[in-house]
Amino acid sequence: TVTRFISNVGFSGFSEFKKEIAQRVLKDFSTTKRLAESAESLEGPGNIFAEILNGDVENIRTLRDTISDQLFEDAVKKLCSARSIYVLGLRSSYALAFYLAFNLRFFLNKVILLKLGIGDIPEQVLELRKDDVLVVISFRRYTRESFDIAEKIKKKEASVIAITNSELSPIAKLADVSLIASTKIPTYIESCTAPMSLINALITAIALRKKDKALSALNKLENTFEEFQTYIS
User: Fold this and answer.
1) Alpha-carbon dihedral sign for residues 123, 82, 140, 14
2) Residue 11 has what pLDDT?
3) 3-state secondary structure of 171
4) Distance between CA 14 and CA 2 in Å, rounded?
5) Residue 135 three-state SS
6) Nearest-CA neighbor of 164 among 110, 90, 103, 104?
7) How far apart are CA 153 and CA 208, in angstroms?
8) CA–CA–CA angle 30, 192, 27 (5° rounding)
9) Full DSSP string of 25-85
10) Which of 44, 77, 189, 191 is 20 to 30 Å from 143 by CA-CA measure?
11) d(Cα 198, Cα 203) in Å, to the nearest integer?
12) Exposure of 121 in the CB half-sphere (CA atoms within 13 A)
C-alpha cells in the first residue's frame, strides 16, 4: 500500500520519497526566520522565561521516551570496549564535544577531541582503526564538515555513534548507533539541555562500568588539584 501510494504521488521509489521528506523537514530553518517567528509567539519577559523552560522540560521528557535502555546500553558498551574514542562536534556542538571528551579521558584508554583549524584532520585520525569509535555531535543546521569527516571515518570501518536531534539527520543515517535528543525551543537557537543530560548519563554509566580505573584516576587528579591549588575552596 505504501509503495503504491509513493508511486501514485510521483516518486520512483521509497528512497526518493524519504529524501524529499527529509529536505522538507530541513527547509527554511534560517536563524532570521526562526527569530521572527519567536518574536510573534512570545510576548513579555515572563512568557519568554516560562516558554523556554517548558521547552527544555519537554525535550528531556521526549529524550526518555525516545532512547530505550537497550539502545543506551549499546552505546555504553561500544564506548567501553573501544580501543580509542574520537569525539567530533563543530560550531555550537563543540562545547558538548569538549565536555564529553574532557570527562571520558579520565577513565578510558584514549580519547581524542577532533579539532579543525589548521587542516590536520588526516593527521589526527592517522592511527584510527576498525575497533575505534567516533562520537559525532550534530544538530540542525547540520554542518557539512561533520558529516564529511564522519563519512570518511566510517569508511575506515570504525563505529560511529551519533548524538543528533532527528532520525532524518544526515549523521543519524550514517551512524551505527543514533541517540536522538530534541533541541527544539521556541526561539532561533537550538537548546543543548537534553543533549547535555544524555551526555551526563553516558559519562556516568561509563564511569560506573570502569569504576576501578575511574577511582584511581580521580584520586590522582584530586592530588594534582591540591598540588596546583586549582580551586579556591
Assistant:
1) positive
2) 74
3) helix
4) 9
5) strand
6) 90
7) 28
8) 25
9) HHTT--HHHHHHHHHHH--SHHHHHHHHHHHHHHHHHHHHHHS-HHHHHHHHHHHHH-S-E
10) 77
11) 9
12) 15
Cβ within 8 Å of residue 98, ≥6 positions away = 89, 113
Bridge-partner residues for 91, per DSSP?
none
Neighbouring-strand partners of residue 134:
86, 160
pLDDT at position 212: 85
Type of residue numbered 33: K
Backbone φ and ψ for 2, nearest 5 degrees, come out as -65, -45
The stretches of the chain forming alpha helices (DSSP H) are: 2-8, 14-26, 31-41, 45-66, 69-81, 94-104, 121-124, 144-155, 170-174, 193-209, 211-228
User: At which residue does the C-alpha cell 555504553 appear?
Assistant: 76
* Residue corresponding to grid cell 525516545: 66
pLDDT less than 70: residues of the chain: 18-46
- The dihedral built from the CA positions of residue 52, 65, 69 and 175, taken in this order, carries a sign that is negative
Tens-place pLDDT, residues 105-147: 988 889 999 998 888 999 999 999 999 999 999 998 889 999 9
**pLDDT score for 161:** 98
Q: How far apart are CA 19 and CA 42, in angstroms?
A: 33
